[in-house]
């Protein structure tokens, strides 16, 4: 399902998407220029996409993948950006449902709070396709299908790599993502499933940095200032936070990669560069390229086919051994 796009083109598109996401937060695809503008004319199927936020490279890549694929298939996509706010996401869904959409593509920010969006969609009679994060609800009843990565397994893979790298002992710090999100909860659970099997590994601190690079940097600075015990490893629930942690460590005189091993999740370009430079240990991929898979599922539903209620995207570990070959797929 991954596609390969020249990185310069991807960056240009990323910047235009970032710019378009400002303002009201509500935009209609096509957002990819003149070619895309020709798609989704009168009579086209209208589909709503509720995005969580559109600033981190993972989100930008996910938004672009969905926008480009909609344009390619002549689908009119109505897109909203919740700007990292669950209450806004519920209001966005209300707006999308009022646009006469045939399906709602929902990336739910929180597991429980975002379930209100499912109630609204059910009342409106609009089928929901959940992508990326899970939301509380009955698969096949409250939503048609969820398409996502296995976050537990991502956390487990990150932990196994880190524990092996530290030889089975060490003091760890964890920077976690948005507290009530399935991404943070499941990655944490997967990570801890490995840690619990290693009595020599201690978790010194677990702090919420909301999947944000700047907050992770500030949080790591505070941890460095107040934590008297040695820190051997840092696990971050995404690569943005891993980069923030590395910046804080370097500013405090640490040599990440030598005296502290930092591990993230996503497979972002900055993380791969940091791995190649020896400053970051490893990352686990979390595929943001949802467009082709989502619209394939919608086509199957339109053709009256049955689709499974859960589709899991396989992920893999990246470290120094394969970081260079993974570069073309990074975002
Ligand atoms: O839900 C997936 C996570 O959300 C990605 O790891 C992260 O970068 C994003 O904010």
What does this 3D model show about the protein?
41% of the residues lie in helices and 19% in strands. The protein is built from 12 helices and 13 strands. Strands 1-3-2-4-5-6-12 form a 7-stranded mixed sheet, sandwiched between helices. It has a 6-stranded mixed sheet with strand order 8-7-9-10-11-13, sandwiched between helices. α3 links the parallel β2 and β3. α6 packs parallel to α7. The N terminus is likely disordered. Bound molecules: alpha-L-arabinofuranose. Alpha-L-arabinofuranose (AHR) binds next to α3 and β10.
Q: Taking strands numbered 1, 2, ... along the chain, how are they ordered across the largest sheet? A: 1-3-2-4-5-6-12
Q: Helices and strands: which structural class?
A: alpha/beta
Helical content class: 40-55%
Beta-strand content bin: 15-25%
Listed once per kind, the bound small molecules are: alpha-L-arabinofuranose
What is the radius of gyration?
A: 20 Å
Strand segment count:
13
Q: State the end-to-end CA separation.
A: 15 Å
What low-confidence regions span 5 or more consecutive residues with pLDDT below 50?
1-25, 29-38
Total DSSP helices:
12
- What overall form do the CA principal axes indicate? elongated
What string gives the helices and strands in order? HEHEHEHEHEEHEHEHEHEHEHEEH
Q: In this structure, how is the largest beta sheet organized?
A: 7 strands, mixed
Integer average pLDDT? 91
């Amino acid at each position: 399902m991954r596609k390969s796009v020249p990185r310069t083109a991807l960056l240009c598109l990323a910047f235009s998407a970032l710019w378009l996401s400002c303002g009201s937060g509500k935009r209609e695809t096509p957002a990819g220029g003149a070619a895309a503008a020709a798609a989704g004319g009168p009579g086209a199927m209208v589909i709503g996409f509720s995005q969580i936020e559109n600033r981190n490279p993972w989100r930008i890549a996910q938004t672009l993948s969905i926008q480009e694929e909609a344009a390619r298939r002549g689908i009119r996509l109505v897109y909203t950006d919740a700007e990292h706010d669950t209450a806004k996401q519920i209001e966005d869904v209300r707006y999308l449902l009022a646009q006469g959409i045939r399906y709602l593509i929902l990336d739910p920010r929180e597991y429980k709070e975002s379930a209100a969006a499912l109630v609204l969609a059910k009342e409106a009679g609009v089928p929901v396709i959940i992508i990326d994060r899970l939301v509380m609800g009955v698969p096949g009843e409250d939503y048609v299908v969820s398409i996502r990565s296995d976050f537990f397994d991502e956390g487990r893979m990150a932990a196994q790599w880190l524990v092996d790298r530290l030889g089975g002992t060490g003091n760890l710090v964890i920077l976690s993502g948005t507290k009530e999100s399935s991404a943070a909860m499941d990655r944490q659970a997967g990570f801890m499933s490995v840690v619990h099997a290693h009595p020599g590994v201690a978790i010194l601190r677990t702090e919420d940095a909301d999947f944000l690079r700047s907050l992770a940097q500030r949080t790591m600075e505070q941890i460095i200032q107040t934590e008297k015990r040695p820190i051997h490893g840092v696990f971050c629930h995404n690569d943005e936070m891993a980069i923030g942690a590395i910046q804080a460590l370097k500013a405090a005189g640490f040599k990440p990669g030598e005296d502290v091993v930092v591990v993230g999740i996503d497979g972002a370009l900055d993380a791969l560069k940091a791995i190649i430079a020896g400053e970051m240990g490893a990352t686990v991929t979390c595929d943001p390229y949802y467009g082709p898979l989502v619209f394939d599922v919608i086509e199957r539903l339109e053709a009256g086919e049955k689709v499974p209620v859960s589709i899991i995207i396989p992920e893999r570990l990246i470290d120094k051994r394969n970081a260079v070959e993974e570069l073309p797929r990074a975002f």
